Amino acid sequence: MRRAFILAAGALLLAGCAEKEQTASGIKSDQQPFAGTNHAVFMAPSWKPGDRTSWESQLKNRTVQGQNDYVKVP
């Protein structure tokens, strides 16, 4: 009984070593975060896509206001 338990525990521990690599469907983006998207819904009105200075300004404003990506803005 004890031997079966040890074998089962060992099998469970080894099963954790067989985890597959987690990638986003093999798609990797080399695009800069300030490059923007093609969807105007995701862009602030005063932000200019591709302009790093305005992107950093928007981030600074959001930080001062206590906003983050997990807070829904009305």
Number of helices: 2
Number of strands: 0
CA radius of gyration is 23 Å
The main pleated sheet reads as: none
Average pLDDT taken over every residue? 77
Low-confidence stretches: none
Strand content: under 5%
**Helix fraction bin:** 25-40%
**How many angstroms does the end-to-end distance come to?**
61 Å
Gross morphology is elongated
Which structural class best describes the helix and strand composition?
mainly alpha
Element-level helix/strand string: HH
Identify the notable features of this structure and list them briefly.
74 residues; mainly alpha; elongated
Describe the protein.
This is Lipoprotein. The chain has helices at 2-15, 52-64. The protein starts with a helix and ends in a 10-residue tail after the last helix. The radius of gyration is 23 Å and the shape is elongated. It has a domain at 45-73. It is an all-alpha fold and 74 residues long.
Short description:
This protein has two helices and no strands. With 74 residues, the protein is mainly α.
Protein topology:
Blueprint: H1 2-15, H2 52-64
